Amino acid sequence: MSRYSxxxxxxxxxxxxxxxxxxxxLGILSxxxxxxxxxQTSTGWWKINTISTGLSGFVASRFLSPLKDVPILVKGMxxxxxxxxxxxxxxxKRMMHKPIGTPSIPYRDISSPEARRESIGNLIDILxxxxxxxxxxxxxxxxxxxxxxxxxHFCETYIPRVWWKEKAIKKLLDxxxxxxxxxxxxxxxxxxxxxxxxxxxxxxxxWRRMNFPEEMQNVVNNDGGVGIICAKRRITRFSGHITVxxxxxxxxxxxxxxxxxxxxxxxxxxxxxRKYFAKEVGAWWRKQKFSSFVFYYHP
Length: 299
Prior knowledge:
299 residues; alpha+beta; 6-stranded antiparallel sheet; 5-stranded antiparallel sheet; 5 helices; 29% strand; globular
């Protein structure tokens, strides 16, 4: 399904493809509301589903624009993010600061915990971190932050790939509008920066800090949410590391001692890309090269 954004200041969501009935209004969609188009067969009217609320109905198609074409202009403390770009894909390292624009990659099914767990497993298979060019390490760089960002993006869970510069934050908090401009208002975040971002901003965007691997694995298993382990390097000119904690499956399990999780089931890009791992690298976040680590969970 294609994603579009509302380009009108307000747009009526209707139960039928007509504006002649004033009683068929289900709600009003605000500017830049993101929707999925379900059916384009009615002339001038498209059936859509709203991403944020799950409501379905009909809207006048002339007030929708493909998501990638909508200018990103925000006011107030908000996400710093780009629209999806078709040039960003699993098969290239182009546009690595932007979301993957491949329309066939599905978003997480949030209808039930079981559906969330199953769709996370499908997403891991589709992103195919062990073989996708986007995440393939080079002699100088690894891409744990990009894989984590992509994973969270398709789970519709926000973690930044770029974040606001200090001057932009001041303007946003002062109520001014700020455009997402690479190198001017936003900059890229590596794993060290993501560690600090989670501590400073994580709770503002729904992340909850956790203390133990057992706690993290249990809530990911039960609810089908997103877990993060992020560690910061002592020597910050070297990048830290970040992994996603994922639900256990019949084939892939966390590492336990006496029934207690000591190494959660994770997925990562890095020096070696792994769809799933647990015991193989141990408690990597406790290595001496890291000065600090955090566990975070998002439902």
